[in-house]
Every structure is written in C-alpha cells, then in structure tokens.
C-alpha cells in the first residue's frame, strides 16, 4: 500500500470525457490534480464541469459542502501538459492515436520527476507500444477507466511487456484508494472487458445474419430471459457503430483473425451508411426525439385446437396450469403438438433423434423464464401445429418469441458465446477467473460473471450448445475453449483454476 498511500499529486493530461472523470474521482479521493490539455478551453470547461458535479453530489448528500470545497481546491489547471511538475503520477487520456501518445510520453519523460509513474488510459492501443517511446519503458502501465468514470467503478490495470513488477501492484492499491475496483488484465487486444464483451455482440449478429431472430427478438430475449439490462442491438445503438465496429475489427485482427472474434459485415455496411445508432437518430432502431421505436410483439393465435405432448414434465405442468390440454404418456398421440426442450440441439434434430414426429414438433428453449419463452420452428414443421404450439405457450401468460430453429435457439447460443469467450480468457491466463467475473459484472452490467453463469447453467450444457453449433455449421467460431472442455469433462468448477503443476511442486 506504501506508494499508493504516499501519492499526493497526479497530472491528468487530456481533459475530455475520460480525463475529467478521472480528475473528479482523484480530487474527491484527496489527491492534488493538475489538469492539462492541448486546448486551454478544455481545461477550463473540465474544471467547471467537475465543480458542478461536486455540487450535485452535495445535493444528493454524497459529499459535504466542506468536502466539495476542499476537492475543488485540489483541482489545479496548468497551461501546458509539459509545464514543470512534482507529480507522482501522470494519467494520460488524450485522443486515441499511437503517435500522439508516444510523442507526449517522450516529452513528459524529460520534465517529470524520475519517481513519477506513467499511466495510459488507452482502450485499444498496446500499452507496450506506447511504453517503447520512453527511455525507461518500465515506468509505464495501462490504467483503463470506463465511461462515465465516477459511475463505472472498474479499472483495468495493465502492465506492458517491460513494466516494473511493483507498478501493477501499486496501481491496484491506488485504484482502491480512488474508491474503484481494480482488476488485473494483460496487454492483449481489448484487454479484459472489451474482449469478454465480444461474446454477446458477435453471436447476436450471427443470429441475425442467419435469420434465426430479428433485432427486437434478440434484445427481448436477452432482457427477459438472460436478465441483461440492455439487449445487444440496443447496446450497439447506444455506444454507436463508429465505436463498436472498429473495436470488433481491432480485437479480431489483434488476435490474427481468430474466428471466435470475427466481426460481422452487417455492422460494417451499416457503419458506412451512417446508421450509427442514437447519435444519428437511426441505428438498429429508429429514434424519434430520442425515444426508441420498437415494433409491437406479434399477436399469438388464440385457439389451442390440439393437445400438447412434451419431453418436459415441467413444461406440461405449466401448460396444464394454464388450462391447455396436455398428454403425459410416453409417446404423443397422432393428434398432439410435440414440444421438445433440448439443450444444444435444434428442435428438428432433437425430435428426429428421439423418434418423434418431426412435422408436428417445435422446440421450446429450456432457458425460458416466467416473463418470456422462445418457440423454435423448423422449416419442415406443419404450420397448423406450429400455430397451436404458439397459442398453447401464449396461454400461459408469458410473452412468446417465435424464432427459426437453430442449435441453441437464441438464449442458449448467446449465453454459450459469453461463457466460452470468458473461458478463453481464463485459459490463456489473460486474467484470473475472479477478475473476469468481477470485471464483466461491473463494467458490462451482466447479472452474473460469465464463468459463474456458465457454472450455474452447467459446463456440460454450455459445451453441448457449442458442439451442436460447431457440428451444424462447421464454423470454427464455435470451437469450445479447453478451459470449458476440461472442466466439463472433469466435473470442475469454471470459476476455479484447479490443481496446477506449480501446486504440486510447492
Ligand atoms: N470515451 C470512452 O468511452 C473511453 C473509455 C475508455 C478509454 N477511453 C480512452 O481515453 C482516451 C481519451 O478519450 P476521450 O473519450 O476522453 O476523448 P475526448 O476526445 O473526449 O478527449 C480527448 C482530449 O485530449 C486532448 N488532446 C488531444 N491531443 C492532445 C495532446 N497531444 N496533448 C494534450 N491533450 C490532447 C483533446 O483536446 C481532448 O480534450 C482515449 O485514449 C480513449 O481511447 C475512452
């Protein structure tokens, strides 16, 4: 804790969106904050805005008036990023351009005290590439904050290839002193959070590309079934495709075209067309006066003309409770609609392999919740039976999303991609399992950490979804990570590292 406790002054360079947030929390935590920017007006407006933020916090009772006044006193505008300084730490948050950041640090090295630690808030450049601009690259690390900084209480601490061993530990302590949660990440494309976030986005785009479900179908399922605060298409509209698409491309190319991270031509085309999202008034959704326009859900047919047979006794109980006529025999009668509830396989494959009448069979995603269930309809399904299945499910009072049959339907596919992506991160030791779960919960707002989530659903089930997709599509993007395969096979917890050779040797 020593260094972090002793830090008394920090210079924040680049007082845009991120720099002012960083300056705010540093001043509130008791550090003297020098604010510098290439544009003098950016510093003035940052000081004003931070002052207003402190006033707001006083209004909300989160700070006393005295604390706010003291924090405001600690803000020290300086007229140049290279003005003389006695600071202990520099946090750089200038525009995302490698040459700009390298030039800046090379100059800072000449004027800062030798003891000062350098940190970059880059989100997509390599920390190591920035550090090599220094005569002493060991004094620089990544300190990756999230937007808006005061509310997003996670910070990735990222050593470069030559960063001094003590610096990541010291920055972890400093982040805690700022009241945020530190996680340790590695200097790899997308670091931890942006890499982990690829699972949701790329799989949602793949589901859309295959015509399995529409954008609102996917968003509704993600909200009501997976419990995400926002569906992937709403999220892309909020962030803007000008940010999301290049991030996808840079992480994918950074991993030399790894198919599991492959971006989608859908977002490239929409980006070129200027359909960026909320900021342009049109993205995956249209926005009128800032309000998202969403098509109403299709109305389910009313009559349930046929009895329902299912391989799931739980589903039959729910249907019977809603007054639907159910069959509980070992096999469906010739009249019955057949509802299969597979993990992994498509409804058609599940029906065929259980010797059930395929033309009368639809799938119901076992991941459905009381709010919403997913009905999956394959191309050889008799339309009358599919309509009866829809009406029967709707009679339970749940919203029903009808999708094109696919291994894993929608929720299972997306969850499997989220879990598998994080399993790759764990497998490659890019972060610890605990940090992966913490980072994703805080920064992406998922209801659970992905490893914990996969464990809850069951590693074997997650694996079965990936294997079914891999075999149905032949697409290497579904290859399961060894972390997942090994833990599913050995019955180990996805959140635990398990015994390592080092454990045996010590
Ligand atoms: N916005 C985000 O969501 C976000 C999240 C995490 C990390 N980041 C990273 O943080 C950094 C800053 O992003 P931002 O969104 O705050 O950008 P921004 O455009 O809001 O602010 C950048 C500021 O840097 C100043 N600047 C540019 N070149 C400079 C130089 N050579 N010297 C001094 N000041 C200079 C600009 O005048 C501007 O005020 C980038 O590296 C970005 O990738 C951004």
Task: Jot down its keywords.
506 residues; 45% helix; Rossmann fold; N-(1-d-carboxylethyl)-l-norvaline Dehydrogenase, domain 2; binds nicotinamide-adenine-dinucleotide; eight-stranded mixed beta sheet
- What compounds sit in this structure? nicotinamide-adenine-dinucleotide
Number of domains: 4
The chain-level mean pLDDT equals 97
- What is the end-to-end distance? 27 Å
User: Class of the largest domain in CATH?
Assistant: Alpha Beta
- Total helical segments: 22
Shape: elongated
GO molecular function, one term: NAD+ binding
Family: Belongs to the 3-hydroxyacyl-CoA dehydrogenase family.
Pathway: Lipid metabolism; butanoate metabolism
GO biological process, one term: fatty acid beta-oxidation
């Amino acid at each position: 804790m020593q260094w972090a406790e002793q830090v008394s002054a920090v210079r924040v360079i680049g007082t845009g969106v991120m720099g002012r947030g960083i300056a705010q929390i540093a001043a509130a935590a008791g550090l003297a904050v020098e604010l510098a920017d290439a544009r003098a007006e950016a510093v003035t407006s940052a000081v004003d805005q931070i002052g207003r933020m402190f006033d707001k916090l006083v209004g909300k009772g989160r700070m006393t008036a005295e604390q706010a006044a003291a924090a405001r006193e600690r803000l020290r505008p300086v007229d140049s990023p290279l003005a003389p300084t006695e600071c202990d730490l520099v946090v750089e948050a200038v525009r995302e351009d490698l040459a700009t950041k390298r030039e800046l640090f090379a100059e800072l090295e000449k004027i800062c005290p030798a003891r000062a630690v350098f940190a970059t808030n880059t989100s997509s450049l390599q920390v190591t590439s920035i550090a090599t601009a220094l005569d002493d690259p060991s004094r620089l690390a990544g300190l990756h904050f999230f937007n808006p900084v005061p509310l997003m209480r996670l910070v990735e601490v990222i050593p470069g290839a030559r960063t001094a061993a003590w610096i990541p530990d010291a920055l972890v302590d400093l982040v805690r002193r700022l009241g945020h949660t530190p996680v340790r990440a590695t200097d790899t494309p997308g670091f931890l959070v942006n890499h982990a976030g690829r699972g949701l986005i790329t799989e949602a785009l793949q589901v859309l590309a295959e015509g399995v479900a529409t954008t609102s179908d996917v968003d509704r399922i993600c909200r009501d079934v997976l419990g995400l605060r926002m569906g992937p298409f709403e999220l892309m509209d909020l962030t803007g495709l000008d940010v999301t698409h290049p991030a996808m491309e840079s992480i994918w190319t950074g991993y030399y075209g790894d198919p599991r991270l492959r971006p989608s031509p859908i977002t490239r085309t929409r980006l070129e067309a200027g359909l960026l999202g909320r900021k342009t008034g049109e993205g995956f959704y249209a926005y009128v006066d800032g309000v998202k326009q969403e098509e109403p859900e299709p109305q389910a047919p009313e009559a349930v003309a046929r009895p329902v047979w299912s391989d799931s006794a739980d589903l039959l109980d729910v249907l019977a409770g809603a007054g639907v006529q159910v069959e509980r025999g070992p096999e469906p009668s010739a009249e019955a609609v057949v509802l299969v509830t597979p993990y992994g396989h498509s409804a058609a494959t599940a029906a065929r392999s259980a010797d059930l009448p395929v033309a009368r069979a639809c799938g119901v995603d076992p991941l459905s919740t009381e709010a919403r269930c997913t009905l999956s309809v394959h191309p050889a399904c008799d339309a009358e039976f599919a309509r009866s299945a829809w009406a029967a499910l709707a009679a339970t009072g749940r919203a029903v999303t009808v999708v094109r049959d696919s291994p894993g339907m929608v929720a299972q596919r997306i969850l499997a991609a989220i879990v598998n992506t994080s399993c790759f991160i764990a497998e490659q030791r890019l972060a610890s399992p605990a940090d992966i779960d913490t980072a994703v919960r805080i920064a992406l707002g998922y209801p659970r950490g992905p490893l914990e989530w996969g464990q809850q659903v069951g590693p074997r089930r997650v694996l079965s979804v990936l294997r079914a997709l891999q075999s149905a599509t032949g697409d290497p993007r579904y290859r399961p990570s060894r972390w997942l395969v090994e833990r599913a096979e050995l019955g180990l917890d996805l959140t635990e590292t398990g015994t390592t050779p080092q454990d045996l040797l010590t």
